[in-house]
Amino acid sequence: MEYADSILELVGGTPLVRIGRLTRSLGPADRQPLLLAKIEALNPGGSVKDRIALPMIEAAERDGLLKPGGTIVEPTSGNTGHGLAIAAALKGYRCIFVMPDKQSDEKRALLRAYGAEVVICPTAVEPESPESYYSVAARLARDIPGAFKPDQYWNQENPRAHERTTGPEIWDQTEGRISHFVASVGTGGTITGAACYLRSKNPDLVVVGADPEGSVLSGDTARPYLTEGVGEDFFPGTYDPAVVDRWVRVSDRDAFAMARRITREEGILAGESSGTAMVAALDEAARIVRETPGEAAEAVIVVILPDGGRNYLSKLYNDEWMRANGLLPTTGAVVRVGEVLRAWHEGAEMPDVVLTRTTDRVGAAIDLLQLYGSSQLPVSEQPEGDAVEGIVGSVSEKGLLDRAYRDPSVVERTVGEVMDPPLPTIDLEATLDEAFGLLSKGAPGVVVVRGGRPAGVVTRLDLLEFLAHRATRGD
């Protein structure tokens, strides 16, 4: 009989699959590089991170840092947590995983399925912030008796695991013919460890790193992005910058679109980090064809696809979520916000934008709402004029009604005492997709700006009526 003693024995040994449909635009197959994808979703926990989980735990056990009945605490985007949770389930450890709030519901549910506890922290904070998932994990590991934090960002067992397994597997599977290695980068463990081994066999190996826009690893300015699991706002100790020959920076839109293409054209259910890596791999393949056409057919590119797409069904493979986040083109991708304003003002005798002032009485603001049939009014702190810089708040028909119903005397108070936060602004030439993104995230309306001055307000109802009229006309 052939069987494994435990699920942990099935980590690694993932296959290479030729990518033959996404490369059609590069020309005839016999004149382009051979592009091979290493399918890490076939690990027991569904990702490349399974490779580092057990080595980190076993090293801690050897060093006396993790003892029977202990607790594993780790900041993770989900995949490392899955690998650790599998090992912990077999070894009897308690697990607490701290995740940024942009991670999918599926990742959280999967961790809980293994019996782990999940703590969610905000994404849009500095790494040093006490609210960041790095800081919260460090605090829990410090305060819980018997707790151990593997710390994949600094634990050298991370790159060593890839040097021992991922690199040798690729070398053997390609019979030593690999010429280019491509990986999306987060902790840097995969690209550092695998490249270290492969370079020991082939010093001429070209290593390409794939990085999301908004990640500092490729030299970009740190800012929020939607792609999960790769990119960082700091430089991890498990990443060696010297191993990367070339970076390809990938937008959220391109990463998500490519992941969906991998699934639909190659039949490989891919996650966002896989989309990021594949964009870079195809970019490298195109560069080889362009710069060395005579040698292109001799090149062998291996790209790591870090995980699958099952963890992203509610996001990456949800058209509504994709549209709400501006990642899926719609009819609104070519329609400008200015068209909504023009349709609203057509045939109406009214100023471009109606403002109320912080010093106006609430009763006067209500009169303005009724006079112009508007549900939202920006509030300016300037005595006169309509500069965008002067807008400090907003009032709404619903908000004022709620206050006046509870306390009728509110109509005699000033607008500045009862106003809500200011509405977000959007340029007149922005697309409806961009406006929809703001409105679908809770904003009741947006202030449309033209040349640094407000040109009007577009509300959810305005957008709905505009789209309904277009549908009626068959536009």
- The secondary structure category is alpha/beta
The first-level CATH class name of the largest domain? Alpha Beta
Count the beta strands: 16
Helix count? 16
Report Rg: 27 Å
Question: How many separate structural domains?
Answer: 3
Fraction of helical residues? 25-40%
How far apart the termini lie comes to: 65 Å
Overall pLDDT score? 91
Strand content: 15-25%
CATH topology of the largest domain: the name is Rossmann fold
* Assigned CATH architecture of the largest domain: 3-Layer(aba) Sandwich
**Tertiary shape:** globular
Defining traits:
3 domains; 16 strands; Rossmann fold; 475 residues; alpha/beta; 6-stranded mixed β-sheet; CBS-domain; 4-stranded parallel β-sheet
What is this structure, in a nutshell?
The chain has 475 residues and is of the alpha/beta class. Helices cover 36% and strands 17% of the residues.
Mind sketching the topology for me?
Elements (H helix, E strand, L loop, with lengths): L15 E3 L15 E6 L10 H13 L8 E5 L3 H13 L2 E7 L4 H9 L3 E5 L11 H11 L3 E2 L8 H8 L1 H8 L6 E5 L4 H13 L4 E7 L33 E5 L1 H15 L5 H20 L8 E6 L13 H6 L12 H9 L10 E2 L4 H11 L3 E5 L10 E6 H10 L8 H4 L6 E3 L4 H9 L4 E6 L2 E7 H14 L2
Parallel strand pairs: 2-10, 3-4, 3-6, 4-5, 7-8, 7-10, 8-9, 11-12, 14-15
Antiparallel strand pairs: 1-2, 12-13, 15-16
Helix pairs in contact: 1-2, 1-5, 5-7, 6-7, 8-9
